């Protein structure tokens, strides 16, 4: 915002709270195309200095715009004009790389963990594997146009997918690989709202207070459990949808 820009302090809006006037000004810039998707929105400090408002006012305006899905706040990077909120079907099992490609965007992935672990009692019960046997564990961050949108925390049955850890998950998603070698015969999944853990916030570039959508999913091929996975989405960037 420059000092020559139209000020939010117009006479006809003096009865409206200052943060609401600021929100209206930002929305207008977005609606007119002055600020297109991915455009960087001025920071709290920049807004406060340019428009002579308090940081508290600027923070509230940006926070509410993020809650409404108008902008996306990325921890450590700033605020940006949001695309139309992305969605994923709740029913069925889709490959996130395919979803992103269908939107005309670019999918990239960062492998955070890819290792063999020993089944604890709880995990053994979840995976229907004996306690003490090995299980594969991967944690992968999926990005759309460089914006983190899904954190995938997955356990895989080595008896079904013995070569799982040998795959390059920067180019092939676990979903694509597993459905090819072990076609899904049955799926169980649950969805809930939650706050993410600090390490999850760091990877998703969100603040601790941002609600997230969590899908817990298990899949079977024939009579064997193939995988158990947690899919975590920032609530401001994603929604679940279903139709029948």
Task: Provide an overview of this structure.
By secondary structure, the protein is of the alpha+beta class. The protein folds into 2 domains: 11-81, Winged helix-like DNA-binding domain superfamily/Winged helix DNA-binding domain (Arc Repressor Mutant, subunit A); 86-241, 3-Layer(aba) Sandwich (Chorismate lyase). Helices cover 26% and strands 34% of the residues. The strands form 3 sheets. Strands 5-6-7-10-9-8 form a 6-stranded antiparallel sheet. A 3-stranded antiparallel sheet has the order 1-3-2, with helices on one face. A hairpin with a 2-residue loop joins β9 (211-221) and β10. Residues 1-13 have low confidence and may be disordered.
Descriptors for this entry?
single chain, 244 residues, alpha+beta, Arc Repressor Mutant, subunit A, Chorismate lyase, 2 domains, 6-stranded antiparallel sheet, 3-stranded antiparallel sheet, 7 helices, disordered N terminus
Topology of this protein?
Elements: H1 18-31, E1 40-41, H2 44-51, H3 55-67, E2 71-74, E3 78-81, E4 86-89, H4 96-102, E5 107-118, H5 121-127, E6 134-144, E7 147-156, H6 174-181, E8 186-195, H7 198-204, E9 211-221, E10 224-234, E11 238-241
What is the structure about, briefly put?
This protein has helices at 18-31, 44-51, 55-67, 96-102, 121-127, 174-181, 198-204; strands spanning 40-41, 71-74, 78-81, 86-89, 107-118, 134-144, 147-156, 186-195, 211-221, 224-234, 238-241. The chain is an alpha+beta fold.
């Amino acid at each position: 915002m420059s000092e020559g820009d139209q000020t939010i302090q117009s006479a006809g809006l003096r009865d409206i709270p200052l943060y609401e006037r600021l929100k209206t000004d930002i929305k207008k810039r977005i609606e007119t195309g002055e600020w297109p998707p991915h455009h960087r929105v001025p920071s709290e400090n920049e807004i406060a200095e340019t428009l002579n408002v308090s940081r508290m006012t600027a923070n509230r305006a940006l926070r509410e715009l993020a809650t409404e899905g108008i902008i996306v706040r990325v921890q450590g990077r700033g605020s940006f004009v949001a695309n139309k909120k992305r969605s994923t079907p709740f029913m069925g099992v889709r490959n996130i790389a395919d979803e992103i490609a269908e939107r005309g965007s670019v999918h990239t992935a960062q492998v955070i963990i890819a290792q063999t672990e020993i089944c604890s009692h709880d995990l053994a019960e979840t995976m229907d594997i004996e306690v003490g046997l090995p299980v594969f564990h991967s944690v992968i961050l999926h990005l759309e146009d460089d914006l983190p949108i899904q954190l995938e925390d997955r356990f895989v049955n080595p008896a079904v997918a013995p070569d799982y850890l040998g795959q390059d998950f920067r180019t092939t998603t676990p979903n694509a690989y597993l459905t090819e070698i072990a076609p899904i015969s049955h799926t169980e999944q649950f969805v809930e709202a939650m706050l993410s853990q600090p390490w999850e916030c760091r990877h998703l570039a969100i603040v601790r207070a941002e609600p997230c959508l969590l899908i817990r999913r298990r899949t079977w091929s024939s009579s064997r459990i193939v995988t158990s996975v947690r899919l975590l989405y920032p609530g401001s960037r994603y929604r679940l949808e279903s139709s029948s």
